[in-house]
């Protein structure tokens, strides 16, 4: 029982980790908690669903999810967040909620509100050290691992990734050093969107696809981003795993509905006790 | 027709109360409260549950305000240590957690089945127009009192301090004021207003369930405040009325063409319209329709 919950927790945690990665990148570099991240995930899930229905290939679905979420994310930046860059953070927060609502409304209008599922073939669970692991979980975990590797590759091995981290550390210094902010921001929103897209696709395969799915996962993603330390991609992923496992393992005790509340409690505790999270920079959250 | 007008007037007045609470918190003090619906829900459920135990409505309304204000207390304690953006996330989480608690704690709230048969305000006058008119009179009175109190606050030393918190907290600290105390008071006051609004809502609708308290309600109130003009008492009233016009207008649209637009499609359209309004107002008219033009 515990082992099965642990496996479920790891897969769930990878989904949270990817969503938290999207949140923490934007929070660390564009400096506001993007409430539209959840609905960007939903966009990816629907795009993946369409591609999967058309082709039956999970790889193609992944590509579609990344493309759609990346596009939605970039569009949000260019149309809304970029013009608001010099405004107080409250404006950005309200606008992000607005973007989230618009994305969810459009998806609701196109696809309707009934829940849809990925038609994936049933397969026997694989027995491993007394644990029964569904093959789909292994596939999803691999997908997530690849996506994470790609994201970290971009962040640490490419020039644009280094520039992004430089902007995250000190925007003014980065500017003075000749880093072009627009390019960095475009790359950032594309990367964050792509991570959200994969997270949405995985969540959709694992549960059901509905217009509300992303919004419902948003709070957990925020909690993981804060627990990991804002601006720390590795922290976000680790915190996502921790939260995912904690949520699954605690479900038998606290019940299904309090899963999200658990994330809220963790978030509060972190903010009060150690506001920089596990790996965050020393920066004032207060 | 009269019954319909009275009904939207009552709901409109409930939104005026909610908007006044948010105006105090965000408009005047700069606290980004994304969990307003949580205080609204606490007030509604508190008054409903207590009144169904036989407590007179006057006392249950007071209890609703008190409980909502008390719920704001811990949030305030957290708030005074957090930056705006973190505070927004925390309050968003608070609102959702309240709804989850209402869904889960069936022994108290009857879960998703909801609480039916909540006693009406002025039940002695019957369920028809006289009772509704009396309710409207009562809530209008409360709105006027709250608006006057807010206006009074903006001209008092207390008001100057909270506006200074919004404009420059560091400078205020340098002057030897303690922003923390003021923030908690403002949160509790705004929450109490939301709690009273919730009590009116509960005893007017007479049925409560968790899905009436989704985050969208919070952003209806934000939309009202932003449309009306942030930080102005008159703006809160204008905004809430515009909001009612919008909500009822979209309902009319569906009544005229029920075949063209299904119920769920209309829900999506409404959501999209709210989102678009939030985006467009922040982008192009952050001071609202009757707001202060000298400031952005």
UniProtKB/TrEMBL annotation, chain A:
This is Branched-chain amino acid ABC transporter permease. It is a multi-pass membrane protein. CDD domains: TM_PBP1_LivH_like. It comes from Neoroseomonas oryzicola. Keywords: Amino-acid transport, Cell inner membrane, Cell membrane, Membrane, Transmembrane, Transmembrane helix, Transport. GO terms for molecular function: L-isoleucine transmembrane transporter activity; L-leucine transmembrane transporter activity; L-phenylalanine transmembrane transporter activity; L-valine transmembrane transporter activity. One of its GO terms (cellular component) is plasma membrane. One of its GO terms (biological process) is L-isoleucine import across plasma membrane. Belongs to the binding-protein-dependent transport system permease family. LivHM subfamily. InterPro entries: ABC_transp_permease, BCAA_transport_permease. It is found in: Cell membrane. The chain crosses the membrane at residues 58-80, 92-113, 133-155, 184-205, 217-244, 256-273. It comes from the Bacteria.
TrEMBL record, chain B:
GO terms for molecular function: branched-chain amino acid transmembrane transporter activity. Keywords: Cell membrane, Membrane, Transmembrane, Transmembrane helix. It is found in: Cell membrane. Its main location: membrane. GO terms for cellular component: plasma membrane. The chain crosses the membrane at residues 6-24, 31-51, 57-79, 122-150, 186-207, 219-247, 259-284. It is a multi-pass membrane protein. Pfam families: BPD_transp_2 (PF02653). It comes from the Bacteria. The keyword Transmembrane applies. InterPro entries: ABC_transp_permease, LivM-like. This is Branched-chain amino acid ABC transporter permease. It comes from Neoroseomonas oryzicola.
């Amino acid at each position: 029982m515990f082992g099965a919950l642990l496996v479920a927790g790891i897969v769930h945690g990878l989904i949270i980790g990817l969503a938290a990665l999207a949140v923490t990148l934007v929070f660390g570099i564009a400096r506001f908690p993007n409430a539209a991240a959840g609905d960007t995930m939903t966009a990816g899930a629907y795009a993946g669903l369409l591609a999967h229905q058309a082709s039956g290939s999970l790889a193609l679905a992944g590509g579609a999810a990344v493309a759609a979420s990346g596009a939605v994310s970039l569009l949000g930046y260019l149309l809304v967040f970029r013009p608001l860059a010099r405004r107080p953070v409250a404006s950005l927060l309200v606008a992000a909620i607005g973007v989230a609502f618009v994305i969810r409304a459009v998806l609701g209008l196109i696809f309707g509100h009934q829940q849809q599922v990925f038609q994936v073939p049933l397969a026997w669970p694989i027995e491993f050290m007394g644990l029964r692991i569904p093959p789909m979980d292994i596939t999803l975990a691999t997908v997530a691992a690849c996506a994470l590797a790609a994201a970290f590759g971009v962040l640490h091995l490419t020039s644009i990734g280094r520039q992004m981290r430089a902007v995250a550390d000190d925007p003014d210094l980065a500017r003075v050093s000749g880093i072009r902010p627009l390019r960095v921001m475009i790359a950032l929103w594309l990367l964050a969107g792509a991570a959200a897209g994969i997270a949405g696709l995985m969540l959709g395969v694992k549960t059901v696809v509905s217009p509300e799915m992303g919004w419902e996962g948003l709070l957990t993603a925020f909690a993981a981003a804060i627990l990991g330390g804002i601006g720390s991609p590795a922290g976000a992923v680790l915190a996502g795993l921790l939260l995912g496992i904690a949520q699954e393992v605690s479900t038998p005790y606290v019940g299904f509905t309090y899963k999200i509340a658990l994330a809220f409690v963790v978030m509060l505790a972190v903010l009060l006790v150690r506001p920089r999270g596990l790996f965050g920079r020393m920066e004032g959250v207060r | 027709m009269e019954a319909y007008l009275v009904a939207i007037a009552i709901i409109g007045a409930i939104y005026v109360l909610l908007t006044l609470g948010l105006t105090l918190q965000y408009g005047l003090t700069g606290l980004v409260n994304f969990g307003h619906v949580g205080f609204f829900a606490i007030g509604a459920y508190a008054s409903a549950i207590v009144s169904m135990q036989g407590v007179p409505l006057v006392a249950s309304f007071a209890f609703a305000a008190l409980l909502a204000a008390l719920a704001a207390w811990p949030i305030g304690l957290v708030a005074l240590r957090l930056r705006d953006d973190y505070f927004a996330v925390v309050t968003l989480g608070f609102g959702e957690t309240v709804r989850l608690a209402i869904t889960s704690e069936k022994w108290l709230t009857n879960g998703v089945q909801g609480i039916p048969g909540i006693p009406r305000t002025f039940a002695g006058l019957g369920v028809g127009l006289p009772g509704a008119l009396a309710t409207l009179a009562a809530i209008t009175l409360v709105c006027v009192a709250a608006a006057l109190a807010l206006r009074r606050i903006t001209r008092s030393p207390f008001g100057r301090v909270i506006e200074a918190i919004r404009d420059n907290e560091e400078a205020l600290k340098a002057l030897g004021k303690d922003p923390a105390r003021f923030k908690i008071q403002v949160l509790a006051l705004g929450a109490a207003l939301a709690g009273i609004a919730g009590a009116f809502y509960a005893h007017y609708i007479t049925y409560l369930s968790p899905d009436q308290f989704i985050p969208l309600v919070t952003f209806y109130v934000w939309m009202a405040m932003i449309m009306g003009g942030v930080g102005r008492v008159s703006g809160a009233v204008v905004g809430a009325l515009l909001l009612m016009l919008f909500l009822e207008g979209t309902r009319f649209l569906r009544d005229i063409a029920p075949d063209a637009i299904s119920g769920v499609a209309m829900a999506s359209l409404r959501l999209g319209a709210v989102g678009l309004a939030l985006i467009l107002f922040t982008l192009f008219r952050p001071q609202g329709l009757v707001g202060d033009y000298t400031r952005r």
